[in-house]
Design a protein that fits this description.
globular, alpha/beta, five-stranded mixed β-sheet, single chain
Amino acid sequence: MIKLKDILHDVSIQQVVGSTDVEVKQLQLDSRKVGKGDCFVAIKGTTVDAHKFISNCVAQGATAIICEELPNEISEKVTYVKVQNAAKAVGLAASNFYGNPSAKMKVIGVTGTNGKTSTVTLLFRLFQQLQKNAGLLSTVQNQINDEIIPSTHTTPDTISLNKLVKQMVDAGCEYCFMEVSSHAVDQRRIEGLKFTGAVFTNITHDHLDYHKTFENYLKAKKRFFDELPGSAFALINADDRNASIMLQNTKAKKCTYALKTPADFKTKIIENNVTGLQLEMDGVEVYTRLIGEFNAYNLTAVYATACLLGIDKQECLTILSSLTPPEGRFDQVISANEKIVGIVDYAHTPDALKNVLQTIHAVKNGNENVLTVVGCGGDRDVTKRPVMAEIACRYSNKVVLTSDNPRS
């Protein structure tokens, strides 16, 4: 166990009621999981204010409470720590609780509307083939070397996140490749993590149900780069018209990759067909089984990141040619007579759907019909639905509009 005073290192404290010399068994964000000797952190969430569960946590045996507002009833058996921002405080506390694990490895965060999962998964697979111990935190799954851990969020809550990174350190991992969502940045879920590098893929219409405006969405992505240390690198897709905004206030080393504009890491598409891509990356020809311009971007981001991490250029390019896409990213199912090709893709934004359908048109022989089945999630951004329907109709012979996860 660890003392409360030790997990509060670097946390901005406004008031303490009780002693910080008490031992803490576990940090908890979910009041239902609080047990004897635990420290509960009360966060004002988007739908629920956890402050109303403080009395329950005290009754369940909590040793300490970190909160933004002290409760009316104070127990002499409990230490109360008042902070200005509990979400920020728990990030630092969780990092301290688990021994600052992110500082003991190279953590790379990938953010953007599209391409996050593909980029982190390809990075993870590249480093596995380089015989490096590595961890993966993605929408599809979390992985520590060969051990697969189911994923519930693009970016887990800050306590779960630090616990996973600690497990990676314990397993001897040198690298961690993780998706960083705009929600995670806004909700301070990555607070306290030490990043070696950050990658920006692109930004298009998404998550406006949460961020309300595109400007807010952009600011959330930008804050990730604003808070990078000077020792880190900031790598952006120079072909994205909003990418340069990410570098405006960062202290990190600024780097770029692109297909169409001048950049530090440049790729040219020589051929793009149903069997794969032939690319020229930094002057070297590379063939890959991945398909489409969007994968050319993903591969360039992976190559650039590997180079910035000190991997040999030639060794990296050799392995890139053998990499396969993550599950649900332009997966192909081909009928026995090869007359029907099914393509499964997790395209859930207008830009991603357009990329997939444009890629299909770019690689098909000419006379095939395109039948698109597409849906959008319930209780999420409603403004993107008509845009996605229009894109589906524009690039398809027939369209089936259905529900994604309907939620409520």
